[in-house]
Design goal:
Number of helices: 12
Strand content: under 5%
Helix content: over 70%
Order of helices and strands: HHHHHHHHHHHH
Distance between the termini: 60 Å
């Protein structure tokens, strides 16, 4: 009777065990073997790993309690052990996947989405540069963008006479406090640019233009009144990360808008899900860039030192960020 029950048990679950075993075998292969041109390995059917693993653990417990053959129990035990190893190795891969994303996946993704990235960069940098230059000839343009109190606050933050508190409105603020403040401020702007894509791109379009004009006006005014070293020396370092994060978050928003405006043959819902996955990945990079910018702004930009050092470091950071997006991750494209 026990042999009959065991036979029925095996017949009922054999396909599940075999599929699980093939899936584990495939996962344990190296990437090179999977993609080998000489003899590529065909991927097995995808499985719901946590669910199937729980089932096999249950089957192992049943086989033990029913005193099925040692060969069957040993087979199920090996599957449980291999599943356990896979489960915990997947968790450890989390940090590895993050490192791989920033070591190649993020810049490759930005290059892949060059169309929305180029549009966002155009909408941000063209008005930025245009108003910066225009204010050198028409300085009163600043009051079309900011009111008088905002202009005075801006000037006081970069007054050469207060060079020991650059970029800060309150003298009592600590570096740690300002680090948190800058993170909140930067990421708040980034998410405005991103979420604006859900309004068929109108929000992203508006915030890209607005931020480009507002920042360009600030840069132009501080240049016009001669605060070169205090202002440019302050912003040149963290700007390499902060400004890129700004227009890339706008690009992520435009990617959402693309799904709503031009879904192609997909439904808008399906297109939004697919484009949303790409947009969220871009935002992962944006958040890290904004945090880096906040760190540099809080602990480096406001420090008192020869301005030439800040310029050299700033140029190096801009060159580093540019090279990162142009060259890094080429093998993954």
């Amino acid at each position: 009777m026990s042999a009959i029950r065991q036979s029925q048990f095996i017949n009922k679950h054999e396909a599940l065990w075999k599929n699980f075993e093939e899936w584990i075998d495939y996962q344990e292969l190296s990437r090179w073997k999977k993609k080998s041109k000489k003899k590529p390995v065909k991927a097995p059917d995808e499985i719901d790993f946590p669910h199937v693993y729980r089932q096999i653990c249950h089957h192992f417990a049943l086989a033990n309690s029913r005193l099925y053959s040692p060969i069957l129990v040993e087979r199920l035990n090996k599957l449980v052990i291999r599943g356990h190893q896979k489960l915990y190795s997947t968790r450890t891969h989390f940090w590895r996947d993050i490192l791989q994303f920033f070591a190649g996946g993020f810049p490759a993704l930005v290059r892949q989405e060059w169309k929305v990235v180029s549009i966002a960069a155009f909408l941000f940098y063209v008005p930025f540069i245009a108003i910066l230059v225009a204010i050198q000839f028409y300085p009163d343009l600043i009051y079309s963008v900011m009111d008088g109190s905002q202009v005075r606050d801006l000037e006081s933050m970069y007054d050469p006479e207060l060079h020991d508190k650059l970029g800060r409105e309150r003298e009592s603020d600590s570096d740690i406090y300002m680090f948190g403040f800058y993170i909140k401020h930067n990421i708040g702007i980034d998410f405005q640019l991103f979420a604006g894509g859900m309004l068929f791109g109108i929000g992203s379009l508006f915030f890209l233009l607005f931020n480009g004009i507002f920042l360009g006006a600030a840069f132009g005014h501080m240049t016009y009144i001669g605060y070169y070293d205090t202002f440019w020396g302050f912003v040149v370092g963290h700007g390499a990360f902060e400004l890129q994060a700004a227009f890339l978050s706008g690009a992520a928003g435009l990617k959402l808008a693309q799904a709503l405006i031009m879904p192609g043959r997909k439904s808008r819902g399906r297109a939004l899900v697919d484009n949303g996955k790409i947009a969220v990945k871009i935002m992962y990079g944006v958040i890290v860039f904004s945090i880096i910018a906040a760190f540099i702004e809080a602990f480096w930009s406001s420090t008192v030192m020869p301005v030439m050092i800040k310029y050299v470091v700033g140029v190096c950071l801009w060159a580093l960020v540019t090279a990162y997006f142009i060259f890094v991750g080429r093998k993954t494209t």
